[in-house]
Amino acid sequence: MSKQILVLPGDGIGPEIMAEAVKVLQLANEKYNLAFELSYDELGGAAIDKYGVPLADETLERARQADAILLGAVGGPKWDTIDPAIRPERGLLKIRSQLGLFGNLRPALLYPQLAAASTLKPEVVAGLDILIVRELTGGIYFGAPRGTETLANGERKAYDTLPYSESEIRRIAKVGFDMAMVRNKKLCSVDKANVLASSQLWRAVVEEVAKDYPQVELSHMYVDNAAMQLVRAPKQFDVIVTDNMFGDILSDEASMLTGSIGMLPSASLDANNKGMYEPCHGSAPDIAGKGIANPLATILSVSMMLRYSFAETAAADAIEQAVSLVLDQGLRTGDIWSEGCTKVGTREMGDAVVAALRNL
Ligand code: NAD
Fold first, then answer.
1. H/E segment holding residue 320
2. Which atom of ligand 1 is nearest to the CA of 71?
3. pLDDT means per 10 residues in the chain (360 residues)?
4. Residue 44 CA, closest ligand 1 atom number
5. Does an H or E element contain 322, and which?
6. Among the options 49, 212, 224, 328, which is catalytic?
7. Residues 149 and 210 both lie in one domain
């Protein structure tokens, strides 16, 4: 039976990087008889232009029916001044929450070929392989009440709310422990339990879940310390599990340890491993339309999709190997370029991965 993949290229560099990822996916589809059928729709700014809202009801329905979703990136200056309730990013938050995609997996893996691209010393980052598990549908990005009001004295005041229920914490903690079990069996739970009530509950529930995973070595760390440790000695981490906002910030920080945000894929999974797969970066309006964006994060998102939603391990491994071979050839987009390498554009990089995959 065929499997339906909904492709949402999005805004800015989204369509450029997605075109390359789809080429790789189509080749994997043929080579490994995956029986994938692709359909396309819009999300974010492109959806505002087409439907008047960042996530149309029919798009959401298509996403519900699909077996997996591949997303580029959303947002851009064109939509920065519109009503905040229909900003492009609202479409992204809505599709994640409506599909129950609560578990965000963000690997930060340093390809040995790119050790020079990191701003940290090679000995600090060489061999780095961290997985950040970020809670994605709760916490301060969704909490109510939120808003801005004008006080009696005319001063404006704004507020957000950071709620977490026990069940929300338990299910993401389990994802963290499950991932640690298939990796190096070390889990660090990051919170701010010295200040926040939601973090105190977080820590207590993580401790409870830990009883089911006696082989996993659990530690707790405050988020400010975790931010520091990530640049001081990042290799101390195996899996990090944390809330929505802390995970947002720490995963961007971890991405820079690897040289470029343009290398990092991500998966957002529901309780049944149905997922949406997207690069960690945004729509990069500063380089959109120039044909220079790095498509590898999106191509590696395809490989995560094959691995986590479809258990097509051979095809997933082959895509990752093809990416590594292309880096061995010295091909680099501008964001990961260093002296002695060959600078290529988005399409050349995609074509090189396709050629490497074809020859495997
Ligand atoms: P960004 O990730 O788009 O860009 C940050 C920097 O990284 C820029 O200099 C950009 O050129 C560079 N960069 C990002 N991806 C790259 C790639 N593949 N190749 C080469 N360089 C790359 O973050 P930003 O500038 O803060 O945000 C731009 C827009 O993207 C905003 O509208 C923001 O809301 C949106 N955004 C969307 C997502 C998403 O769709 N998941 C995530 C973050 C930001």
1. helix 313-328
2. 40
3. 95 98 98 97 98 97 98 96 92 94 93 85 90 96 95 98 98 95 94 98 98 98 98 96 97 85 92 92 96 98 94 95 97 92 97 97
4. 40
5. helix 313-328
6. 224
7. yes
Q: Is the peptide bond preceding residue 54 cis, with omega within 30 degrees of 0?
A: no
Domain that holds residue 325: 1-107+289-360
Query: 35 CA distance to ligand 1 centroid (A)?
Result: 32
141 carries an active-site annotation = yes
Task: State which amino acid sits at residue 221.
Answer: M
* Number of structural domains in the chain: 2
Would you say the CB of residue 252 lies under 6 angstroms from ligand 1? no
Are 335 and 316 spatial neighbours (Cβ–Cβ below 8 Å)? no
Burial of 6 (0-12, 13-18, 19+ CB in 10 A): buried
What torsion, rounded to 10 degrees, do the Cα atoms 47, 50, 53, 55 define?
Answer: -40
Both tokens assigned to 18:
């997605």
Tell me, yes or no, whether 142 and 228 share the same domain: yes
CATH number at residue 236: 3.40.718.10
